[in-house]
Write a structure and sequence with these properties.
The chain is built from 4 helices and 16 strands. By secondary structure, it is of the alpha+beta class. The protein has 2 domains: 114 residues, Roll (2,3-Dihydroxybiphenyl 1,2-Dioxygenase, domain 1), CATH 3.10.180; 109 residues, 2,3-Dihydroxybiphenyl 1,2-Dioxygenase, domain 1, CATH 3.10.180.10. The protein has an 8-stranded mixed β-sheet. An 8-stranded mixed β-sheet has the order 6-7-8-5-9-12-11-10, with helices on one face. The protein is globular and about 50 Å long. It comes from Catenulispora yoronensis.
């Protein structure tokens, strides 16, 4: 069984705060309003996104620009302005990542500084996508190929060392911008969780290794699930493989 993208996970010093922000921006609801005993919070999509967003309690400070950020789409200039205003009202802020004064997209940060972009209307690349248009990643062409094979998602862009994939069922694109990209320093604050049937987990891990992934041993906590296996893609970005089913206690 090919692994399925189950979640995008954020390290969060205040998971409830971040979940509230992103719930307000995306319109997604928490899976358990009462909260998880670990302090983690999960948001469930209300569209064709196909994966959850999970905020994992972490004491680690954000020190560098994230390797993954959201690109949110707009239907008009007024719609773009409404999204920006809503994000600012919820606790977001403008962020300078070198975009320059002529940029048509707006770069913002959530309450813990995680960057995201509100894309101007008329973007042809994201025209067929919903409000959450893309997960834009800093990474190589090889890692785009890896994730295409790992998830069984077709390449929808492959030019000038830039790649993008998209689920056959729709939802956001996942893009990798190619070189130049920043050297990885420390654990990423955002990572993928992929899920597979429990009785196929080891076989799937072996397949992912054959595609270029490595198994991480002695890793700091990436997930609160037991039986999850920490791995790294060919660019060294952490992800983890979990048995499908409800979250398990530590």
């Amino acid at each position: 069984m090919t692994a399925q993208l189950a979640a995008l996970c954020f390290d969060a010093r205040d998971p409830v705060l971040l979940a509230g922000f992103w719930s307000g921006v995306l319109g997604w609801e928490a899976a358990d309003p009462a909260g998880d005993p670990r302090g983690d919070v999960t948001l469930l999509p209300n569209d064709d996104t196909g994966f959850r967003i999970v905020f994992l309690a972490s004491e680690a400070e954000k020190t560098t620009q994230n390797q993954i950020h959201f690109d949110l789409t707009s239907t008009s200039e007024a719609d773009q302005q409404r999204t920006v205003a809503r994000a600012l009202e919820l606790g977001g802020r403008h962020v300078d990542v070198g975009q320059g004064p002529d940029a048509t997209h707006v770069v913002l940060g959530d309450p813990e500084g995680n960057e995201f972009c509100v894309i101007a209307p008329g973007n042809k690349f994201l025209a067929e996508c919903g409000f959450l248009g893309a997960l834009a990643c800093d990474g190589s062409q090889d890692v785009g190929y890896f994730w295409s094979r790992a998830l069984g998602w077709p390449l929808v862009w492959d030019q000038d060392q830039e790649t993008a994939i998209r689920s056959p069922h729709g939802g956001p694109k996942i893009t990798w911008g190619g070189p130049p990209f920043a050297a990885k320093t420390g654990k990423n604050r955002l990572c993928f969780e992929v899920a597979v049937a429990a009785d196929a987990q080891e076989a799937e891990i072996d397949r992912l290794v054959s595609l270029g992934a490595t198994r991480i041993t002695g890793a700091t906590r990436i997930t609160g699930r037991t039986n999850s296996v920490a791995m790294a893609d060919p660019d060294g970005n952490e992800f983890f493989v979990s048995p499908s089913g409800p979250p398990r206690s530590r």
